[in-house]
Inverse folding.
């Protein structure tokens, strides 16, 4: 049975929702599922914008057939060839043998790499090119490294619809809803949108900044991403989020406390620090156990907050492995411009504090580490009260700047 939604006149959503998949890209948990968005333009020529993941191909093909309603498919615009969007391309080509594929040179190369039979069925475009399909004219804008090198976005100059590829997307299945004004985005979706951006695209902030500058020159009326809700208003909200995330500007003044604890003593110290901060008036705090929180959630809040406290026990004369993994993730994603605090624990050879400081100073950029830190021997005691007060006071003072 088909399941479609009208976006604007002549344009229909023919995507599908997925709740069976546990891990997006086999790494990021998606407890609320995910949508794979695809769109069909009905003009003098029919145009499909991107396909879907193979897992939902059957529903997608039913949707496509329903919207075409007996018409042939003339063109397929591939903005992004990653398999969660391009895997069903060959199936579409088999069913619609007259369809031509429009995409970038690198995208067409990747189609060949995946073994797709597209010889004689492609039209290469580059930034600045346009194609008219009747009354609708589509302009193509290259968007390399957002977040693959072949990516582009497509803009309908007739009605102001931007097909934004993976930009402005989000984890979470749509489940009947399509538009951002049909959900409470700030309450129910922003955390998934942030976690999607920071973990999938976060490394490529400068490239996102470039596409934001290009988007600012367009008279956008609707944003159609490949995951998550379609935006038909409130653009300032999502553009502001993307500007902050891609420039590594903290979204909020607040504190992320991430602790690694073997027997509960470092956890206890993290809770004491959190309580002291709240007593000082700092209430925007998130506290996570790095051992039982998926790193994608930690990354998301690291992009959200202005301050990060790393509290780690020493393990084999090093940083606790899962804490080190978190540090490696935020390094890989180019996170910067944060103020950091360090809480160290160790029973016979405390080393985690100095090693975390060294990592932040030498392996990352623009990470300012507080001069004061807390150094525990096995557990926090009365002898740590001076360090605790000094640490908390310095952190609070740094939030006033």
């Amino acid at each position: 049975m088909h399941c479609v939604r009208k976006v604007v006149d002549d344009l229909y959503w023919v995507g599908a929702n997925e709740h069976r998949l546990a891990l997006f890209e086999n790494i990021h948990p998606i407890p609320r599922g995910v949508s794979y968005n695809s769109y069909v333009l009905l003009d003098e020529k029919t145009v499909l914008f991107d396909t879907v993941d193979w897992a939902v191909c059957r529903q997608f093909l039913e949707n496509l057939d329903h919207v075409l309603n007996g018409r042939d498919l003339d063109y397929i615009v591939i903005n992004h060839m990653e398999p969660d969007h391009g895997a069903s391309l060959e199936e579409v080509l088999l069913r619609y043998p007259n369809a031509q594929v429009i995409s970038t040179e690198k995208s067409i190369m990747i189609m060949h790499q995946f073994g797709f039979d597209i010889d004689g069925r492609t039209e290469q475009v580059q930034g600045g090119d346009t194609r008219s399909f009747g009354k609708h004219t589509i302009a193509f804008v290259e968007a390399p490294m957002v977040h693959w090198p072949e990516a582009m976005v497509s803009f309908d100059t007739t009605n102001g619809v931007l097909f934004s590829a993976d930009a402005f997307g989000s984890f979470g299945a749509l489940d009947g809803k399509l538009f951002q004004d049909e959900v409470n985005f700030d309450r129910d979706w922003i955390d998934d949108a942030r976690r999607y951006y920071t973990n999938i695209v976060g490394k490529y902030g400068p490239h996102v900044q470039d596409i934001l500058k290009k988007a600012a020159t367009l008279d956008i009326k609707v944003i159609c991403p490949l995951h998550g809700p379609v935006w038909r208003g409130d653009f300032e909200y999502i553009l502001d989020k993307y500007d902050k995330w891609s420039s590594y500007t903290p979204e909020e003044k607040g504190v992320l406390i991430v602790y690694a604890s073997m027997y509960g003593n470092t956890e206890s110290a993290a809770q004491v620090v959190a309580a002291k901060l709240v007593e000082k008036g700092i209430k925007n705090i998130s506290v996570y156990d790095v051992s039982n929180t998926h790193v994608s959630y930690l990354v998301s809040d690291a992009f959200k907050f202005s301050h990060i406290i790393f509290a780690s026990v020493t393990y084999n004369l090093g940083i606790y492995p899962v804490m080190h993994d978190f540090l490696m993730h935020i390094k890989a994603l180019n996170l910067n411009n944060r103020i950091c605090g360090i809480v160290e624990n160790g029973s016979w050879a405390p080393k985690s504090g100095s090693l975390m400081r060294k990592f932040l100073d030498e392996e990352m950029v623009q990470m300012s580490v507080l001069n004061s830190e807390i150094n525990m021997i096995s557990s926090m005691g009365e002898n740590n009260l001076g360090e605790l007060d000094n640490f908390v006071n310095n952190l609070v003072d740094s939030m006033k700047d």
